[in-house]
Write a structure and sequence with these properties.
heterodimer, A: mainly beta, Immunoglobulin-like, Lipocalin, 2 domains, four-stranded mixed beta sheet, globular, B: about 130 residues, alpha+beta, five-stranded mixed barrel, 3 helices
């Protein structure tokens, strides 16, 4: 007991010294609308002057600790997976070196509410618990990593803000104003770039050969082909919902280049033009994960390239199932 | 300065809302402020994407019966949660809570479903319900 107490003191002392030496600490508890703790919430502190970012994830009891934070003013944000909770942001939170500041967060109920059977958080937990991912080396195929598998395709936990041209920012404002009533998926059209992802948590199946990577997904269209046989893009591809994708290996990273998009799909909630160019850098750092760094370029919409960092988890017990969007009758319910 | 602030706010919304509006435009179709709770008997289940639907007959105090349609998540998700198209059977008496549609019809989005005979909740959502 005494030893425990002494080690606790040592830990506290170390923390105090660390805090004094390297910066301040922001800590607190994240709860939902009912006051229940929210676990696994990705929380981020972004320094308003330097843009430097410190990140943490809440524990089972909702607690988080962001440290060390150099003295300064921070924007705090939490972007929960769609859609049970609204995203949270608090700007201009001042933290001083050597001090610990408390910031408790109560997340508001999300816009999509809790349609029964439709909550991505619950679904992801069920999928993760159904089968343990074995610890194995990354399989290889023709001298390269084999990216094949069935994946729980998570959203970016720390979404970057796109720099939109004025016309695109105006379109976004309008879409927010009308509650996204014209989103492609309300008309059973594919939604999501580079891989359409209608069902949360989205499942995707990758099937790789030495010359092709196929991505099967549960949204209208159902598949993407990424040609890794050395062919170039066609000179003037017909605009389509998933574009034309070619891949080249850069070491153990597959670099996928896609052009030939139509301008009808949505880039998140932003519009885009047919000039959209998407680069995906896909790697399998271990047996159970795919890391995908996506860069969006569109001089017709974006003032600077926009990025997403996706982390897909292997889901050994799952498979993709046929998905035909046949009956989105709720679209008729739109009122004024 | 005001310009700058609104630009920041808007950008924040883009990043935050981009993944957040799921596969239907809930807020355009249903009104979260119009909560509704009904007891009725299941008359039909439609196991269709992007949303499963079920219908219940609801009697008012005068005994007049009206049929109500309720939207669920997608069968793809419901199946992953362990349910089947037979989990909700015609003739079962249930209590349903959710949000009414904006067009004023007898339609709503189901948030929580309870079997009256056992008290069991169906179709797990984030804060209520449970998976089987």
């Amino acid at each position: 007991m005494r030893r425990l107490a002494i080690s606790a003191w040592v830990v506290i002392l170390c923390e105090v010294l660390l805090a004094q030496g390297a910066g301040g600490t922001l800590t607190g508890v994240v709860t939902g609308p009912t006051g229940a703790p929210v676990a696994d919430a990705p929380i981020q502190a972004k320094n308003r002057q330097s843009g430097a970012v410190v990140r943490a994830v809440t524990a089972v009891d909702g607690r988080y600790r962001l440290a060390p934070l150099p003295s300064g003013s921070y924007d705090i944000s939490i972007s929960m997976p769609c859609c049970a909770f609204d995203p949270f942001t608090q700007q201009d939170v001042v933290v001083q070196a050597g001090q610990t500041r408390q910031l408790d967060v109560r997340l508001a109920e999300g816009v999509s509410l809790n349609t029964a059977g439709d909550d991505p958080g619950t679904l992801a937990a069920v999928v993760r618990n159904r089968a343990k991912v074995p610890s194995r080396p990354v399989p290889r195929l023709a001298g390269k990593p084999d990216l094949s598998g069935v994946w729980l395709a998570n959203e970016d936990r720390y979404p970057e803000e796109p720099s939109l041209l004025p016309w695109a920012a105006a379109a976004v404002k309008e879409r927010i104003g009308n509650a996204f009533k014209d989103a492609p998926h309300t008309q059973c059209l594919p939604e999501g770039i580079p891989t359409p992802a209608s069902i949360g948590p989205f499942m995707a199946k990758t099937v790789q050969t030495s010359s092709l990577l196929v991505v099967l997904f549960e949204d209208t269209g159902g598949f993407r082909q990424i040609f890794i046989d050395g062919r170039p893009h066609p000179p003037d591809p017909d605009p389509s919902w998933v574009g034309h994708s070619i891949g080249k290996w850069d070491g153990d990273t597959l670099v996928v280049d896609t052009i030939g998009y139509n301008d009808r799909s949505w880039l998140g909630i932003a519009p885009h033009t047919e000039m959209l160019h998407v680069i995906e850098r896909i790697r399998r750092p271990d047996f159970g994960h795919l890391e995908i760094r996506v860069t969006f370029e569109d001089p017709g919409t974006l003032m600077a390239p926009w990025h997403q960092n996706l982390n897909w988890e292997l889901a050994p017990a799952e498979d993709v199932v046929a998905y035909v969007c046949e009956n989105n009758r709720a679209q008729r319910l739109v009122g004024k | 300065m005001r310009m700058m602030l609104s630009a920041i706010t808007l950008a924040g919304l883009v990043a935050a809302a981009a993944p957040g509006y799921a596969h239907h435009s809930f807020a355009a179709e249903f009104d979260a402020d119009k909560s509704i709770k009904l007891v009725g008997t299941v008359t039909k289940v439609e196991w269709t994407n992007p949303h499963a639907w079920f219908y219940i007959d609801v009697a008012d105090d005068a005994g007049k019966v009206a049929n109500w349609g309720w939207e669920l998540g997608s069968p793809t998700s419901l199946v992953r949660l362990g349910w089947t198209r037979n989990s909700l059977k015609v003739g079962t008496v249930i209590t349903v809570e959710g949000s009414r549609s904006r067009d004023g019809s007898n339609t709503a989005n189901a948030r929580s479903i309870t079997l009256n005979s056992t008290g069991q909740k169906l179709f797990g959502a984030s804060s209520q319900g449970q998976t089987p």
